[in-house]
Amino acid sequence: MTQYLAFLRGINVGGKSLIKMAALKEALEGDGFIAVKTYIQSGNVFVNTSQTSAVKVAQAITVSIAKHFDLDVKVVAFTKQQWQEVVSDAPKWWDGDKSTGWKHDLFILLPPYDMKEVMQTLGESKPDVENIGSGAGVIYASLLVAKWSRTRASKLPGTPLYKQMTIRNYNTSTKLLALFD
User: Fold this and answer.
1) Domain housing 37
2) Do 56 and 121 fall into the same domain?
3) H or E stretch at 122
4) Distance in angstroms (rounded) separating the CA atoms of residues 58 and 1
5) What does the DSSP 8-state code read for residue 151?
6) CA 68, CA 97: separation in Å to the nearest integer?
7) Looking at the structure, do residues 101 and 168 belong to the same domain, yes or no?
8) What is the pLDDT of residue 42?
9) pLDDT 10s digit of each residue in the chain, 181 long?
10) Mutual orientation of helices 80-88 and 170-179 as an angle, nearest 10°?
11) Is the domain of 70 the same as that of 91?
12) For site-directed labelling of 95, which of 14, 26, 107, 130 has its Cα 20 to 30 A away?
């Protein structure tokens, strides 16, 4: 059995695509996943399965959600080792320290994507208001809250790239690593 961490895009946001985590857990277990657990309401789900492909796990979760909730939800999944690499490979400036007025987020990319194209779409970061760097299936972003409107990230909502990602903050991203079995 392999444990995966799956990220669901766009559920329980703004009163749309509502899924109760208890109902999601029940649905996934009914479709063969084992030891399903969720973390907060934003679509973080741990599942155990004999499946060895993270892509196939994500696809199976998407199918299960469509079947049980009649929603088309994009999903991406990571093994513990993959998520450990995401967290440990983070740049030093992506440190979660909010006392300086910076917000630290992780843009988790939903396949398919080309990282070179993603970074080109984001463009050059502006070090006085943001730091942006790529990782294994993610973009690390630290943004000066007081200057949010000047950041590249502020221009993302509504773009095709924005629809290809789900975002978690530093605290959630690092806490999820500790929640793996």
Assistant:
1) 2-82
2) no
3) helix 115-122
4) 16
5) S
6) 40
7) yes
8) 87
9) 999 999 999 897 777 788 999 999 999 999 999 999 999 988 999 999 999 999 999 999 999 999 999 999 999 999 999 999 999 999 999 998 888 899 999 999 999 999 999 999 999 889 999 999 999 999 999 999 999 999 999 999 999 999 999 999 999 999 999 999 9
10) 140
11) no
12) 14
73 Cβ contact list (under 8 Å, min separation 6): 8, 9, 10, 11, 17, 43, 62, 65, 66
What separation in angstroms does the CA of 162 have from each of 14, 100, 109, 154? 16, 26, 9, 11
Domain end marker among 18, 49, 82: 82
Q: What is the CATH number of the domain that holds 47?
A: 3.30.70.1280
Residue 39's CB is within 10 A of a number of other CB atoms, namely 15
- Distance between CA 56 and CA 77 in Å, rounded? 9
Q: Are residues 61 and 29 in the same domain?
A: yes
User: In whole angstroms, what is the distance from residue 149 CA to residue 158 CA?
Assistant: 15
pLDDT of amino acid 17: 85
Q: Please indicate, yes or no, whether residues 157 and 125 belong to a single structural domain of this protein.
A: yes
Tally of domains in the chain: 2
Residue in the structure block whose two tokens are 């991203």? 173
CA distance linking residue 96 with residue 174, whole number of Å: 9
Q: Could you tell me if 55 and 123 lie in one domain?
A: no
